């Protein structure tokens, strides 16, 4: 089987611990190179058995044998390096959030389209088959008509003084970091877009970033949605759909990998609860899906349209948080 040859821009923790090992597990991918702006890249390459190590991102992008790059850089650097990668003809898998605004996202998407490269926002969770199963259950009518969707994604952030997620200039904040998952999941599960957004939260008085966001969204199909995200709460990564005849709860929605790759679906009707378990290696599935899109010239699981629309909602959340007002979200295509 033909394999996509990958390079990774930076020695970020998520790349070293999750994505690079997943490239090794994938059937249609192999890791060829890693780059950093310091000499520590050589130790990382040796530790992870990566053949090539570069002390600059530019050198890696100049390697003609690399087909695709994974970008886990800080949020404020996504735009620059997605565009630079596209100009070098490299397909791009970029960590979420793809950018810091809808306008940035559109510019990045345009660059990728201009240079004929595939690109995808790294919402690895959506590749887990538990979510397709949830949509099957909803479509079956088992829990009736969906009226409300709720989602929570949080963790208690340690060592705040040195964490880039506390730096506003680098794209820090809980909505950017974990709220983006809830927004994406709600849009996916309802097959609808938010038309109204009201956000409240807790703003760090020193850095100005949102430590906590609590958001109400009214969807274009009339469903109401609530989500919370935080750096100040216990770890949660879940969603719930409330229908006229029952509920569906998914307690490991965004990180089934911490539950041995097992997704759990709890379907409740009155006093009856049914549990379903669904297996899936989210990071491997992400790499295989994107590599296959390159090999087959097909669309990856997370489309450009979905990425742009998600950033539009993130923009609205931050505007509401800043102004204290309800924001009407333009539902343009």
TrEMBL record:
Keywords: Oxidoreductase. Residues 5-122 form the Gfo/Idh/MocA-like oxidoreductase N-terminal domain. InterPro entries: Gfo/Idh/MocA-like_OxRdtase_N (IPR000683), Gfo/Idh/MocA_domain (IPR050984), GFO_IDH_MocA-like_dom (IPR055170), NAD(P)-bd_dom_sf (IPR036291). It comes from the Bacteria. Residues 132-248 form the GFO/IDH/MocA-like oxidoreductase domain. Signal peptide: none annotated. The keyword Oxidoreductase applies. Belongs to the Gfo/Idh/MocA family. This is Dehydrogenase. It comes from Planomicrobium stackebrandtii.
């Amino acid at each position: 089987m033909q394999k996509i040859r990958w390079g990774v821009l930076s020695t970020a923790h998520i790349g070293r611990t999750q994505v690079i090992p997943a490239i090794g597990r994938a059937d249609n991918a192999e890791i060829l190179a890693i780059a950093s702006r310091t000499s520590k890249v050589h130790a990382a390459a040796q530790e992870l058995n990566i053949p090539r190590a570069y002390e600059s991102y530019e050198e890696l992008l100049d390697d003609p044998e690399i087909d695709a790059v994974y970008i886990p850089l800080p949020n404020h650097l996504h735009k620059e390096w997605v565009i630079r990668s596209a100009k070098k003809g490299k397909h791009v898998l970029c960590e979420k959030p793809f950018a810091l605004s809808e306008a940035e996202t559109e510019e990045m998407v345009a660059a990728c389209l201009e240079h004929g490269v595939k690109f995808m926002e790294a919402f690895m969770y959506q590749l887990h088959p538990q979510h397709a199963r949830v949509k099957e259950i909803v479509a079956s009518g088992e829990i009736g008509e969906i009226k409300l969707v709720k989602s929570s994604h949080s963790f208690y952030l340690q060592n705040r003084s040195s964490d880039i997620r506390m730096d506003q200039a680098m794209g820090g904040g809980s909505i950017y970091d974990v709220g983006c998952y809830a927004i994406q999941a709600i849009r996916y599960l309802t097959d609808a877009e938010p038309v109204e957004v009201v956000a409240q939260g807790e703003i760090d008085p020193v850095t100005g970033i949102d430590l906590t966001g609590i958001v109400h969204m009214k969807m274009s199909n009339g469903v109401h949605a609530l989500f919370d995200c935080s750096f100040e709460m216990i770890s949660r990564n879940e969603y719930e759909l409330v229908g006229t005849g029952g509920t569906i709860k998914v307690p490991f929605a965004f990180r089934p990998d911490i539950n041995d790759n097992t997704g759990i679906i709890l379907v409740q009707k009155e006093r009856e609860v049914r549990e379903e378990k669904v297996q899936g290696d989210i990071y491997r599935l992400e790499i295989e899906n994107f590599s296959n899109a390159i090999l087959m010239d097909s669309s990856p699981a997370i489309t450009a349209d979905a990425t742009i629309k998600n950033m539009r909602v993130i923009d609205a959340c931050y505007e509401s948080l800043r102004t204290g007002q309800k924001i009407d979200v333009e539902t343009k295509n």
